[in-house]
């Protein structure tokens, strides 16, 4: 088997996050795997609202078009923007870090909680839990009140706030594991787990492994039905996806 | 009260559809209302796949930014692309024609069916039904096998196919009303209803009226929580939504 | 088009409520619309329990029979008693203020809360939310502990209690909009909205507009299936619905 | 222990059905139990539509008021009209034959089907299945196309049609048991079971036993919360339920 | 009719619990019924975790094989271990005390709460509520923090703790009835009901009556489909269920 | 990092299946991983009914106790018997091949179908889909009518039947991918995929990779809450899980 080549697509334009998530993916995948971590040229430096998200989703589709020769794609924003579109644009497997984090959580815990950034994202996350069929297994979606831009290991205060939120949902809601709802929190997952005492699921690490797993199993995105290649639609002012 | 000004946003770039839907909205709204029907400068001429849809959603957000002085917005594509983002970008009510069509259907019938264009859109529509809490009231999502680009009153064959599909779901599945899953079908709704013998819900007409109704009631999009103004995020290569 | 004639059916026998709701409907509908607001001759002066509700539902069916020549019907009690029966008894659209209020709320907010009268009605309202597919979007059903009979603008204390409840669900539960679960609260909706700072959905105003919207779109109650004319059943001691 | 006194309330006015269901209840209950089988003075001779049902529900509430001294009540129409109201009006247990039939079915089979009278009742039954949390366990709701008025052991043709429908849902849908969706079918349940070869659940027999079971266990309707005594509401033109 | 013979299968090996539950069943069933209360020779003395539960489920299947000549079976552990397997192994009705308690609760109350032993069992009970379609009707699953082994009337402190928990869920969550989530609590149900003032549903008493009710109705476990006799599978090291 | 040691637990006693699944796991995992494939000493040679399943679940718990020094466990029967119990008995991750197959399917397809052995297992699989929150994404559960014992690559006829069933659900139901509901089908997955033309998800291969992925991420089964170590319960006639 040749080496596994993962394209990690950071939907926001913050190069620090792109790099940090690339490091997490590389460290988690077995030796010899290659990770190309990229972000769009234009768009938000972090994704906090639906308006940011629609810009990012279109950027993800564009990135897949620009990076065709990879074995799998990881969309590295917890809201999974553009994942469905990306699946139409390639036969390789496409994984979103949000769905990956949920899959990890339900495999190692019966009830989990999500720690997120701002209160405004709670309904979005609840709807994602519903869509993935795991709302009944999530005991709390706990916002920190700290925006995405301030997440990451270079910010000690954020880690402490995540730990506090984690302890709260364990004690108050019976959370048995945590899901970190932000790619920017990926590099603090192990530190939080060690402090809170329950497993902490980060979608970047587990999502990279899920992409690798599908590849090892020879499983590719179905081209029959909803994820089939885009229809041959004429586009105005830009190239179409299939013309 | 001053006159009601509706911005009808066609997420695709097909001017014929934009114009036809503008006519439907104008004819349905009470006299004196104003309808500005627009479409994006760039993007797909019709929306058949998720890849088309993410481009369109970003365009809808952009259109709202460019058209600030309206009393309400109608997003005129059945998949409701960008509706959530649009709600963040204005205090005026924002209505999607997909959700509007479902609301009409459940008010006049206990069980309905959706007639759509291509088979690949069936899962997307089922998921939308689920999201809006009406999947249990829909007895069938019936694809015509005819793409969006060929819908509309200028195409007699399409109307006949819609009528056939409508009769099928009434006889076979007990559909009591039909929902037409394409803005491009708006101008044939009454003809289909007359042929099939059950009410036919078109989201352009009813959605325009829902927008008007919210305005008459003084109901505006909540700026508290999920639909609050976008966060002040730095953008690269393009203006942010709030800087 | 001739003028729109709405029959507003107050299922309880409190003439003050009938009149107040008639005023709300008239003020919300566009100029030239006619509203006939009626209530039954016998039955409860307010509807607090299921026992009151079954009497009221039968009265609603009777009122539709007595008022045939209208373009639409609005059943003006939050529990929507008799709405299904009314739909069988006419081809005109029939709207319940409960379902209308929910439809308004989900169009302008992602999460809402319901403010109701007595704690005993909480399960009934939760079940209605479930039936309409919006239970997951409602963050709280908050009872005032004040009966229906004491609601309305002539009662300053009730308005203050509604405002308090509204502020509570916004702060504690993240409610982005309120639904007032009582026709008798219709005339205080705007005052509450102004005090609490989030949109307040009242089903009388929005329901009247929904009825009008359906009429404008030429959408009538489906006579195929569940809402078909009643079967020709023999009745004892009273006239049947179709003999 | 004194003898168990069951009030069987037939919501329609067909004395033949009242008597036949009384016989079924008496034959199923252990020796020494007393069954008072009654029907309202006014209302439909059978219940096929929602309009019939709202009249019947009000009649059920009235019947409970007139028959206070019983140990339990059985509402003997498959749609369970007025069951909630009846529960408010007594401390004795109240059982509906619809809910009882579903409870029997899920205890003896993993998947069941419902055989009903007219196609128009299918949505009503599906909604009841949903409300009782068993929609996922029902593989089919199969209408006979024969109205309630023609059901019963005095009608050989109906029994044959029920048997045919039963065989159909067993072979086609994998039904493991049948539920008969009509009190008027109670006296043919055993004949159908013997012909089709799967258990047939009739809510009259099992509902009478459920009422008896609750009584034996000392379980009475909760007077705390939703089923508490009706509020003291003034009534116009008729006595209120609690004044 | 001959006398009803119930086999009460206690899945744990605590003879005190077996005997106490046998007494509850005998006292609840009508005179003349026979109750054989048994427990396995090997396995846990109480069932607190899933590991205990899988041992107990296998033991239940074995007990049914050893006790063929009974009219019905009652599996007397709240988690209903082995109930599905037991249904495959007999034509007689099989009732689990968990499902029976839920059926009683929803018949006499619109909202109920469950009082359980240890916090770790909360997810298991929530999942059972979901599986039985009644999660939306349960307002709380309240753990006592006291293990199964210490439940029962011989332990005054436990009764007081159950009463406290019951008062808490009534006042805080609006519970209208209680379900005791442990066979070992069966003999204190009436004492708790009297102290808390709402009905208390114990699955041993009501489950015994449900088994009796099915038998009176001639309803037996369906042998068509999921509960059919086990397939003829070869077993290693032990006798198979059908060889 | 040391080599990954997976314990593959075949819940049935068929050594041919154990060996075949061990080969699949070894071939899918990266080089250097160790797979110990075992089966119980006593129990069914294949698992077709719930009675077989409860015996197998208890055996799985016993196997985990006997094989403590592994990095992860894979329970290799599609019904996932004993997975919850196994999670209580180790800190290592435990994966069931049923849940793993569903996770793979929803990542590469929007709608999938399950191909199973006997019709009697359809309800069991539907309930598992429900439990894992993916019932709405499964368009069909298609039985072959061929028992587990006859599955596997040594049986050409079975492969042809799986291919036929696969083609049927793709054409008739719009299945975009297949899930093979039997560990014994693992070694024909690629052949079926090649014939049917859609991805085929086998839980043995993907489940082994999921176990490996969790291990790479440092994610272990949560010991807080439902999957905590078993309580210290006294056992009769056999050793307890924690004494």
Structure notes:
The structure is a homohexamer. With about 240 residues, chain A is α/β, with parallel strands linked by helices. The first copy, chain A, has 2 domains: about 5-95 and about 205-215, Rossmann fold; about 100-205, Rossmann fold, CATH 3.40.50.12500. Chain A is built from 8 helices and 10 strands. Chain A has helices at about 15-30, 50-65, 85-90, 95-110, 120-130, 155-175, 190-195, 205-215; strands spanning about 5-10, 35-40, 45, 70-75, 95, 110-115, 140-145, 175-180, 200, 235. In chain A, the strands form 2 sheets. In chain A, strands 2-1-4-5 form a 4-stranded parallel beta sheet, sandwiched between helices. In chain A, α1 packs across α8 (about 205-215), α4 (about 95-110) packs across α8 (about 205-215) and α6 crosses α7 (about 190-195). Chains A and F meet through α4 and α8 of A and α4 and α8 of F.
Question: Largest interface: which pair?
Answer: A-B, 52 and 52 residues
Largest sheet of chain A at a glance?
4 strands, parallel
Mean pLDDT of chain A equals 94
Shape of chain A: globular
Q: Largest sheet of chain A, order of strands side by side?
A: 2-1-4-5
Provide a brief overview of the structure:
With 243 residues, chain A is α/β, with parallel strands linked by helices. Helices cover 41% and strands 16% of the residues of chain A. Chain A is built from eight helices and ten strands.
